[in-house]
Amino acid sequence: MIILENVPRIYSRIIIIGIFALVVLFNIDQSYAEEYTISIPYGAFNPELNTPAEVWYDPPELIVQVGDTVTWTNDDREGHTVTSGDGAGRFDWMGSKNLGESDGIFDSKRFMPEESWSYTFEEAGSFNYFCVIHPWMEGIVFVEPSIPDYPHDATGKPVEFPILLITPDNSVEINFSWEPKIIKTHEKVNFIYRFYDATTDQPLRKLQYDIAIIQNGIELYRDKNAVSQAGGDYRQWIFEEPGSVLIKFRDIRSFGKVAETNIDLSGSSVARLGDFSAVVYENTEKIKTVDEIVQPRQTVQFYYEIAVAIIVVPAIMLLIVVIFMKNKGPQTPINQGGRKSSPI
């Protein structure tokens, strides 16, 4: 540490910690990237049907994620290129001037047998490529967005559940989370939240509020005058498009009594608000869903109907039995042979 010998010890430590943090962050960022290899097999130079090569690039189709690196190795006996764009196809190049067209995204230039060339994909999409020397050689790489394995907000910053937020007027604390932690299209997500007194840290068991779900600047859902149940609540949604999401709470205010105790949120509710953000990723495994969204009011109505059925149905059955017994009346003894019947 010669370069730090004239620097005060505390500053030296700060510099060392900073360098260590940068190294750790760099390694974490790199640890998510994968490396893939595509072979240019022997015989790829020959467009004939009886060529030893079954495909021109092996594999001819590859799925990777943003940040992954693909390396092409030349296992053939002639030089080749890996050039982004559309090739001529196996037969179209014959007797024509169609030798493929590059789109300029990447180009390996010519590399010889036993040599290789690599490219790191930084954007999502599908990338066709071909060999400008042998334009019948074609392949494609599908690049999917990189999906983290941890929850984060719309800026990519990792979050820990529950997320704690205190309203600007310092009166209410909102605890917020979602499940599953990674939100994907065509999958049901539960946004779960609870309200607390920001001063006493006691749960606020009954509040009225407005909530909205906004994605890519478009409002998908709004519930005005919602009422929290036992201090906590939830909302369900199924997103059809990827993109950033904003969940907005507005106009949080008192609503009635609980256990004979008034919830007192004095003052204007204009500054009693909170915003939470997340990201929805494209689901490569599902293109639609059969799940149904059930919001809290629908759940309450469902349990209410069950309760009504439990109480009303037995009552109706009992009433029918009573009416039947009443109409039936007492049985008259049967008189056989003109003699009065008498008990034995």
TrEMBL record:
Which InterPro entries does the record match to this protein? BlueCu_1, Cupredoxin, ET_Amicyanin
The protein's UniProt keywords, in alphabetical order, are: Copper, Membrane, Metal-binding, Transmembrane, Transmembrane helix
Domain Blue (type 1) copper intervals: 55-144
Specify whether Membrane is a keyword of the entry: yes
GO MF, one term, reads: electron transfer activity
The transmembrane segments are: 302-325
A Pfam entry, by short name? Copper-bind
Q: What is this protein called?
A: Blue (Type 1) copper domain protein
